[in-house]
C-alpha cells in the first residue's frame, strides 16, 4: 500500500472518536511509517474541543522507536473498527500482507524443472529425530514450546485436528535429558499424541510464560511451507533458492517445513526479513501460507507419526550460512542491471542526450557539486541558481538556465532566515519575482536525517511536483559515515543517484573545502574528504578565494567615488560643470561636487561615498573552475561576492589575481630561506599532496610522486624527513588517526 493511502485512511477516522491511547498510537504509526509531525497535527486539529497547539510536537519527540513498534496496521484496524471497508482498488490492507519493506525486484531463480525426491529414514528412531531437532535449533537453557493435545472439527464429513496451546515450561536441555532416558517412549516425555493428528513444535525459543509473539525471546527462525506443489518440487525449490535452512522437516502431509535462519535483532527487523524471504519465494512460484509469518508459529515435530506417515528430518544446515549471506546472494542475481548493448545496434539511432539545465555545465537529471570555503557564499550561489532556474535566466551572470520548478532543501538555516535570504537575493539581483511560485523550500533544520533515510522521504514528497532540479544545502548535515572513506562516501553519493533516477531531475549540492590554503591544489582536490566527492558528480564547480592587492581595492574605491559623485551632480543638473576627464578623477570630481552642490547635499553625498567604500572593502573575490563530465572545460570565471550576491568581473580586473596560497614561494623568492623554512615548506607540500590523493587514509607513493612532480625516491626521502607517515611497501599514510584536511 502506498503511504499516501494511509493519510486517506486516516481521513476516515474522526480524532474526536479516539481515546488518548488511540490518538497516541496514530502519532506513533505515522512516525514509524516516515510521515511528519505536521500530518499528525493536521489530523488532530479536527478535534476542536481537545486540540492544543504544540502538543503533537511535544509527544512526537518522545517517540523514539520500539522493538514492537506501532505501525500503519494499527491505523487500518482503527478504520475497520469504525466500519470502513477496503473494497476499492485504491486501498489494500497494510498489515503483514502489505508493503514489502526490502526491495527485491523480481528474482526468478528456480527453473521449475525436475523435483528432488527424498526418503523416510531407514532406521526409524523417533527419540533421536526429536533430539537432533532440539540440538539444531535451541540452546540448552532455552524454553521450547510444543503441542501434542488436539481438538477436532468436522467439515464435509472430514475430521480436522487442531493443536491446543501446548506446553512451554521445559528447556531444550531438560527435554533432551528426559528423551535420552525414556527408553524409546517419546510419549513419556512430551505426552501421548493422536497418531492421526501428529504433533507440533515451536521453532523459536520462548520465555516460559506463554506462547504468543511477545513471549519469543530470540527472533531466530521463520517457517517456509507451501502445499500448492508436489513434495519433490518443494524440496527442489528450497534447495535451488539456497535458503539458509537450519532444519528441513517432512510434515507427514502435503508439505515440507523449512525452518529458515532469520536471526533478527528485534521484532520489526524480523518482519522485514520474513517479508523479503516470502516475496522471493513467491516470485519463484513458491506460495507461502501467510499465517506462517508469526515468530511463535507452530511447525511439525519430527519423530512422530501422522495418519500413517512419519514426520521426520529430511536435512539440516543446508543452503547459505545466514540470512545476510543469502540476501546478498539473491541481490547479486537480481541486480536489475540492463543487458549489454551492441554498439552496431544503436549506431544509426543514438538516444538523445538529456537537454542542458545549466548551459555548458550540467544536463537535466544529472548531479552537480559546488565546493568552496565557508566564506564563499555557497548558499547564496545556490539560492541564485534556484532563482535563475525558476525565472529562466542566467546564473552568476554567465550560465543560461532552463526554466522550471525547483526545490531547495534547507538543512542549516531557520525558516525565517532562509526566506529572507531568498527575498534579499531577488532584490539584489533586481529580478521582480514573476515565477516565485516555481520555488519550493523544504525547511529541515532540526529535522535532518542521514541521506539514506532522507532520500526516500524526499522522493515521496517530490514525486508529483515535476521538479527540474533539487538543491540540497549543505550535505554535511546528512552525510552518513566517514567522509574520508571512499566506500562509505560512494554509498552516500549513491543516494543522489536514487533521487535523480526516481524523480528524473538534477540534484545539486554543496560541500566545504578541506582545511588550509587551497592554491597549491587542483580544483577537483579541494573538497574535504574522499576523492569520491570530486569524481562522483557530473559537474564540479569549485570556488577559490583570490588575493586582492590593496591597489585594486583602491581602484574600486575610486570608481565608486566617481560614480556616486556624478550621480549627485546629475540629480541637480550640475554634471555640465564636470569635464570628461574629471569624471574619472576622484579628486577633481569631488572638487566639482563641492563647488556646485549645496552644502547639505554635498555632506549627504560624502555619506554615500563612505558607505560605498566600506562595501568595497567588504567584497571578496573568487575564481570559479569547473570539472565537467558532459561539456568542455570552461575558462575560469572571476567573481566578486558583493553580499548577498555574486557579480561577474566583466572588465577583467581580477584576471591577474592569484588564488590564496598559490605560488606562495614566489613571494619569498628574493629572501634566503633557512634550512628550517625549506623543511617546513617540504612538509607542507607533502601534506597538501597527501590530502589531494589519499583514499581511506592512505595512498600509493607513486601517486604522491605524480602529484608533486618528483621521483618516488624523493617522496620516500621527504616522508622519512616528515616523520608523521607510515610506509608499507608502496603505500603510505598518516601515523596519527586525524586526517589531513
Can you tell me the number of structural domains?
Answer: 5
Q: Uncertain runs with pLDDT below 50, 5 residues or more?
A: 88-105, 664-671
Radius of gyration, whole Å: 36 Å
User: Which architecture of the largest domain would the CATH scheme give at its second level?
Assistant: Alpha-Beta Complex
Helix content: 25-40%
List keywords for this structure.
DNA primase, PRIM domain; nine-stranded mixed sheet; elongated; 27 strands; 741 residues; Rossmann fold; single chain; alpha+beta
Question: Could you explain the architecture of this structure?
Answer:
This protein is α+β, with helices and mostly antiparallel strands. The chain has 5 domains: 3-81; 126-333, DNA primase, PRIM domain (Alpha-Beta Complex), CATH 3.90.920; 356-545, P-loop containing nucleotide triphosphate hydrolases (Rossmann fold); 550-617, no CATH class; 664-734, Winged helix-like DNA-binding domain superfamily/Winged helix DNA-binding domain (Arc Repressor Mutant, subunit A, Orthogonal Bundle). It is 36% helix and 19% strand. Helix 6 runs antiparallel to helix 7 (172-180), helix 18 (550-571) runs parallel beside helix 19 and helix 22 packs across helix 24 (712-722). The protein is elongated and about 125 Å long. It starts with a helix and ends in a 7-residue tail after the last strand.
Could you give the topology of this structure?
Blueprint: H1 3-10, H2 20-32, H3 37-44, H4 55-60, H5 72-81, H6 126-137, E1 143-147, E2 150-155, E3 158-163, E4 167-171, H7 172-180, H8 187-190, E5 200-202, E6 219-224, H9 231-240, E7 245-250, E8 256-264, H10 267-283, E9 298-300, E10 304-306, E11 309-318, H11 323-333, H12 343-346, E12 356-358, E13 362-363, E14 367-372, H13 378-391, E15 394-395, E16 399-400, E17 405-410, H14 415-429, E18 439-443, H15 451-462, E19 467-473, H16 486-503, E20 506-512, H17 532-535, E21 539-545, H18 550-571, H19 586-596, H20 599-618, E22 620-628, E23 637-642, E24 645-648, H21 664-667, H22 675-693, E25 698-700, H23 701-708, H24 712-722, E26 725-728, E27 731-734
Parallel strand pairs: 14-20, 14-21, 17-18, 17-19, 19-20
Antiparallel strand pairs: 1-4, 1-5, 2-3, 5-9, 6-8, 7-8, 7-11, 10-11, 12-13, 15-16, 21-22, 22-23, 23-24, 25-27, 26-27
Helix pairs in contact: 2-3, 2-5, 6-7, 13-14, 15-16, 18-19, 18-20, 22-23, 22-24, 23-24
